[in-house]
Amino acid sequence: MSRASRPGQSRPTAVIVIAPDERSAEIVVEGHRQVVTGLSPKETRRAALDVATGYAARIGQPVLVDARDVNGVWRLVATPDGVVQAAEQPAPVQAPAPAAPPTPAQPSGSGGKRVLVIVGAAVLALVLLVGAGAVVMRFLPGSGTAPADQATADATTLNHPAPPHFSETVDFSEALATGSAPGVSREGDLLTFVDPDDRLNLFDADGSRLWDVELPMGSGELLGAPRFVQYGGEPAIVAETAGTLWFWPAEGGAAVEIPIPANASAQYVGSSVLVRSEEEAFVPVGDALEPVEIPGSAAPMLAEGENVLAAVLSGPWTWVGPDGDPVEVNAERPDDAGDMESVVTALRDYVIVRWEPRRGDDTILAFHDSEDGSVIGAAAVDPALLEDVRHRSGPIGTDLVAYGPMVLDPATGESAVVPGFTPEIAVGPRVFGQLEGALVAVDASGEPVEAPDGAVQPNGLLGERAVVVHNDHLYAIPPE
User: Fold this and answer.
1) I need a labelling partner for 361 at 20 to 30 A (CA). Which of 90, 132, 188, 312 fits?
2) CA–CA separation, 21 vs 302, rounded Å?
3) CB–CB of 439/447 below 8 Å?
């Protein structure tokens, strides 16, 4: 986010000149000259920008940066918190002589185009490609292939490698409360996070802020990231503190506070919140928790709306709500399967069941539709690969789902088994997770692609952009 000065208000200025060989740079800040060097062009630019952000931090205010190299001139703003961003100008520079520094763009309101940002010592808003000095630049609208001194930088890049299948270009970035993480809706249309001012924010898939509101508590009191759930039949954001659930309607409005019993905990493996203790199950209704009577020896697994799915170790599962009226669901037997071994777990729209094989020693692992019991997909899996598998809803996406080593395309039923794979989160048509100690992305065919060293796992997919977090900032990056 830019911190623009008022029109006509002067600002400290730094001039950066990159040497033609890109191995050194001269920085002049308020009349004081300094030279930095780097082993690569990217390293030189990072070192130069470190000087500018360091000076901004010392004086406690943003610094205008006039950055130049053989390719052109970039006018940037370095802020005290280590952020460097493009300073937009209304039209391309017409004269070859440097123009006066333009007024940095004000942050847009909801629905406006956001100023793109990078953190710390990023490359002067250039995307360096493999090859001798190959550079991709974005120009102002209408500038076409203007001379170098007419170029302006409005593209930014990550200062660490991107995860597989995504670009290092940053479409937008936001600062996060220290140690916090954002939440991305499973459908990929909404993003929520807590900023350094302890305000809860909601963005749409275009990166526009829909609303923000002050938290009724400090961000350090939150237990995990804010999440998207169904509440009262509508999309909502839920945040949890010790002994309390807080709900904000996605369309905006005041928070609803619901206490949690001391011996109970909240679970988020369905579309709604399930609160359960050893003996009782509850769902949020209005401003209170309503008890749900679980039939027989079944255990509550997840909540969808105000209904709870309850299952026994082997046999049909049951949907039941606060008003009773249980509905029993029988699992369809997969091809090549014998008797049911056990109901493993229920995650999002699916109940995962182990079946005995008709032939061989492998277990038949099947995803069943939780509403009607039909088989969505199945695979033969070595039982040893299913030991110590964690029941996680993160790998249950809309385009691809995973449980342990099995990945499944629910639309086609195509499945694959990746021995040793630990899935963490579904991101579009891929699931990210760990394989032999490395971060990988796996598609429906089971083909893993290893992430480069230093890449971080996405937190979700917002539209077509992956959301990644680094140094208490979130970045939305497009596909390659």
Assistant:
1) 312
2) 61
3) no
Percent of the chain surpassing pLDDT 90: 66
Triad 388, 402, 387: Cα angle to 5°: 15
Place of tokens 């070192």: 47
Other C-beta atoms closer than 10 Å to the C-beta of 177 total: 20
Mean pLDDT of the chain: 84
Res. 114: pLDDT tops 80: no
Cβ within 8 Å of residue 355, ≥6 positions away: 333, 334, 337, 338, 339, 340, 341, 363, 364, 365, 366, 378
Rounded-to-integer distance, Cα 312 and Cα 344, Å: 10
User: pLDDT by residue (tens digit) across 58-102?
Assistant: 887 888 898 888 777 888 888 877 778 776 543 333 333 333 333
Q: How many CA atoms within 13 Å lie on the side-chain side of 289?
A: 26
DSSP letter string, 232-269: TTEEEEEEEETTEEEEEETT----EEEE--TT-EEE-S
The answer to whether residues 294 and 303 touch, using CB atoms and an 8 Å cutoff, is no
Residue 401 pLDDT exceeds 70? yes
Q: Which residues touch 433 (CB under 8 Å, ≥6 apart)? A: 395, 402, 421, 422, 423, 424, 425, 439, 440, 442
The distance from CA 212 to its chain's CA centroid, rounded to whole angstroms, is: 18
Q: Which residue carries 């008022």 as its tokens?
A: 6
Rounded to whole angstroms, how far apart are CA atoms 433 and 202? 27
Per-residue pLDDT tens over the stretch 142-168 = 223 333 333 223 347 888 899 999 999
Q: What is the pTM of this model?
A: 0.70
Residue labelled with tokens 């005290």? 80
